[in-house]
Write a structure and sequence with these properties.
alpha/beta; 7-stranded mixed beta sheet; about 40% helix; 6-stranded mixed beta sheet; globular; about 525 residues; 18 helices; binds NADPH dihydro-nicotinamide-adenine-dinucleotide phosphate
Length: about 525
């Protein structure tokens, strides 16, 4: 595997700041060198075909499952998340591999297409999916194994070689993924370029397709750079996801679901519930139950597995941003019914319920990415929809009600890429559905059945003769009067019977001559 020559950086625990590892700091030159090596290896990988590549993926799946406990140790250490959450990522990657490996042959198969009219009627036509040679994946720190895996695995299956730049905050799980790839003996088509922003910038400058997951501000920079090079990109960005709780909701489920949807991974998820709109008639009882549940959650340092529900934030900067949103809201008249301050242990922040917030506050307008649940009272569903749509973000939303047909119609009024009814996160685990944000939450989409693999490919059109061919086509150079007249006659004869016959079908309105 290509690797940098000199410098390293430290990876530290967010819980107690202890040194976990020193890892290579890829310079831009190292990134260029890594991509040259990947480019050399990619054609043989592509030549294996979808089924051959799927075999390697299934070996990686088995390795991930064999190493699941160790992987949970690593990602818990570098991210500070609770054990119960850390242990989900490896099995989730195994499920993702199963789905795409099982369908790779079907999704990437050549497609025979019919002709489009007279001029293509003599051709046999095939659409072929050919991978971008090198895909660059840039990932954030909130799910250190799953975030890289969600993009690396489909890109490899599509036939691309992959350069992965994980966040400098949590690079160790990505390095484990690379270790797994090596240990199963797979071809050298995956390189992890650990490093900081310059490594990410260098990646965008040399790969053939950029898959970025991270903040909207960095996504914008990445997109500009990719556009300059005219390379395609797909962006999974930030969110400010609303929950709408209607008067007829099953309150027990809504309270538990909103709590989990907002506080899973300490709220550090793109699809975290970050604003809750509750219909007036149930607002007070919803808030009372929510506060009781959140207040009873266990938080702090997890000295024994499963001892806490909400653990550390990944970085001190993230904790400070959350605290700024809470203190500013409180200064402007909001009330924290529980929580509202750091735990004092590492980067921990106490799960917080905020009421009396208004729509101008940062805790409603900006992505908080932390364990806060701001609740807003609304008169009815219409007001909830209007406020939910009043955001620059458009990632996903949840609706809580017993009236499923009504929820379906409300979903269609929300300007977001996904809506979960009476659940949170559900769309993320449905690989047959697209996962992509609207507005400033993204561009392009992950997953969505065949699209999940085909997005890493270019469509190639191949035409071949359907019938025995002449020495030359009548319309070719050099022109001769005889062939030109023959072509014209033939064309008009067919056109009279074929093209004109179709005119009414295409709704042409001018009167026949
Ligand atoms: P950042 O945007 O800060 O970083 C994302 C990645 O980009 C990191 O690997 C980072 O490296 C790298 N990077 C930073 N600057 C550049 C640059 N100029 N060019 C190329 N790469 C660069 O996001 P966070 O890591 O802070 O992640 C949190 C954000 O990710 C939130 O906004 C969250 O909503 C979003 N997110 C979106 C998801 C989705 O699917 N929509 C899923 C998960 C998170 P380094 O960390 O080393 O600086």
């Amino acid at each position: 595997m290509a690797g940098p020559t000199t410098s390293t950086f430290e990876v530290r625990s967010p819980v107690d700041d202890r040194l976990l590892a020193e890892v290579a700091d890829f310079s831009p030159a190292d990134v260029v060198e890594a991509v040259i090596t990947l480019r050399d290896a990619q054609p043989a990988w592509e030549a294996l075909g979808p089924k051959g590549r799927a075999r390697w993926m299934r070996r990686l799946r088995d390795w991930l499952l064999d190493e699941a406990d160790h992987l949970a140790d690593v990602l818990q250490a570098e991210s500070g998340k609770p054990r119960a959450e850390a242990q989900l990522e490896a099995p989730w990657m195994a499920e993702l591999i199963n789905y795409f490996a099982d369908h790779a042959g079907e999704f990437l198969a050549d497609e025979r297409v019919g002709h489009s009219g007279l001029l293509s009627a003599t051709k046999r036509m095939v659409k072929v999916y050919r991978p971008y040679p090198v895909v660059g994946v840039i990932s954030p720190w909130n799910y250190p194994l799953a975030m890289p895996g969600m993009d690396v695995i489909p890109a490899l299956l599509a036939g691309s070689a992959v350069l992965l730049k994980p966040s400098e905050v949590t690079p160790l799980s990505a390095l484990e993924l690379a270790r797994g790839w090596r240990e199963i003996g797979a071809p050298p088509v995956l390189t992890v370029a650990t490093g900081s922003a310059p490594a990410g910038q260098a990646l965008v400058d040399v790969v053939d397709f950029v898959q970025f997951t991270g903040s909207t501000s960095t996504g914008r920079l990445v997109a500009h750079r990719a556009v300059d090079r005219l390379v395609p990109y797909s962006l999974e960005l930030g969110g400010k996801d609303p929950a709408i709780v209607l008067a007829d909701a099953d309150l027990d489920r809504a309270v538990a679901g909103v709590t989990w949807g907002a506080l899973f991974n300490s709220g550090q998820a793109c699809v975290s519930i970050e604003r809750v709109y509750v219909e007036d008639s149930i607002h007070d009882s919803f808030v009372a139950r929510l506060t009781t549940l959140v207040d009873g959650l266990r938080h702090g340092e997890e000295t024994t597995p499963y001892a806490v529900d909400v653990a550390a934030m990944a970085t001190p900067q993230q904790r400070d941003l959350v605290h700024r949103h809470v203190t500013e809201a409180v200064a402007d008249g909001a009330r924290a019914l529980t929580g509202g301050s750091p735990t004092g242990i590492g980067t921990g922040y106490r799960p917080t319920v905020l009421v009396d917030v208004d729509h101008s506050m940062a805790c409603i307008r900006e992505e908080t990415f932390g364990p806060t649940i701001p609740v807003i009272r609304v008169a009815d569903a219409d007001e909830a929809v209007r406020l939910a749509n009043d955001s620059t973000y458009g990632l996903s939303a949840t609706i809580w009600t017993r009236d499923l047909p009504r929820a379906q119609s409300i979903a269609r009024r929300l300007d977001v890429g996904a809506v979960n009814i009476n659940d949170a996160y559900a769309n993320l685990f449905a690989l047959t559905l697209p996962h992509g944000g609207w507005k400033t939450s993204g561009s392009g989409a992950r997953f969505g059945g065949a699209h999940g693999l085909r997005k890493y490919t270019r469509q190639q059109a191949i035409t071949a003769p359907r019938f025995p061919t002449l020495e030359r086509e009548p319309a070719w150079f050099p022109y001769s009067r005889g062939r030109a007249l023959l072509t014209r006659r033939l064309f008009h004869a067919v056109a009279a019977r074929d093209l004109r016959r179709r005119i009414p079908r295409f709704g042409r309105t001018d009167p026949p001559r």
